[in-house]
Please model this.
Amino acid sequence: MNTGSDESSEAVVAADRVNGDRPEGGDGAGDGLGSRAPRFVQSRRLLHLSWQVGVFVLGLAVVVAGIIMLPLPGPGWVVIFGGMAIWATEFVWAQLVLRWTKRKVTEAAQRALDPRVRRRNITLTVIGLVIIGALAGIYLWKFGLVMPWKIKDQ
Model:
């Protein structure tokens, strides 16, 4: 929608966002990409670089902890996405990955709420439980139920 603004000024604002600058009076809420470090950190190159290293190391530690939690008890995926959110405060690539992930999760949630899909999932779950129950019944009929503390010495 054209509001009558000069196209050249819009190009300058777009170029500023690409360079990491934020429009006046804003906090980077336009497209949300770029560093969210405080201005005094961004204004000093060495300080900003050390800030980025710190954010990367902290995010890496959280992601590694989440990966460790995947086979162990704990909220592995939640912690991994938390580490990605930490990275997304500073790195554009992490922001894009997080946006893509949010979009895919939202699409999956909408598909899961579809009545036909829910009916299919319930049907498949019931069929799976019946098969598991039948296999367990056949095993118990054939071998019986022997508790480990009642096994005779061989």
Summary: The radius of gyration is 27 Å. The chain has six helices and no strands.
